[in-house]
Design a protein that fits this description.
This protein has helices at 3-13, 57-78, 123-126, 135-152, and strands at 19-22, 26-30, 40-44, 82-86, 96-102. The chain has a five-stranded antiparallel β-sheet with strand order 1-2-3-5-4, with helices on both faces. It has one domain: HIT family, subunit A, CATH 3.30.428.10. It has four helices and five strands; from the N terminus they run H-E-E-E-H-E-E-H-H. With 153 residues, the chain is α+β, with helices and mostly antiparallel strands.
Length: 153
């Protein structure tokens, strides 16, 4: 089983502390690490398709639409200067969007003099335990994101 499937099982069992809301095609979660404050993910419900182009057109359109709604809600909730979107999958071949609220200086002087993708920043800094939200902070983040999702759906 993949990490995303494990996280979805935790959502279904009520044990995923990062779960925010279920949508038609996926699950909204707050990222475990918050170097990029407000980092959220949108996890496709099924593992049977691993590429966006494998979804039939109505499902693909709905998945993209819902991801855009989650991105807008994250932007409203966390106030970034710009949102970055990634649908990768070499680490976990399960369709899932990474939604990064970005701010000037968030990658320090890495990348092209501080400008560039999130992966310009050292992974050990992104995934440092010090970037994990406290239980209280996570509760506030989830509430803020859920409030904005409720306004958009």
């Amino acid at each position: 089983m993949c990490l995303i499937c494990d996280r979805i099982d935790m959502i279904k069992n009520g044990t995923n502390p990062y779960f925010v809301r279920e949508l038609e095609t996926g699950y909204v979660v707050i990222g475990d690490n918050q170097h990029f404050y407000g980092y959220s993910l949108f996890l496709y419900k099924n593992h049977d398709k691993t590429e966006l182009f494998q979804l039939d057109m109505p499902e693909r359109i709905k998945f993209m639409e819902e991801m855009s709604i989650v991105a807008e809600a994250a932007s409203r909730a966390f106030g970034p200067e710009k949102m970055n979107y990634e649908l990768l999958g070499m680490g976990d071949a399960h369709l899932h969007w990474h939604l990064y609220p970005r701010r000037k200086g968030d990658i320090e002087d890495y990348g092209n003099k501080g400008v560039g993708p999130v992966w310009s920043y050292p992974l050990e800094k992104i995934y440092a335990d010090s970037n994990r939200p406290s239980e209280e902070e996570l509760k506030k983040m989830k509430a803020a994101l859920k409030t904005e999702l409720d306004k958009l759906i």
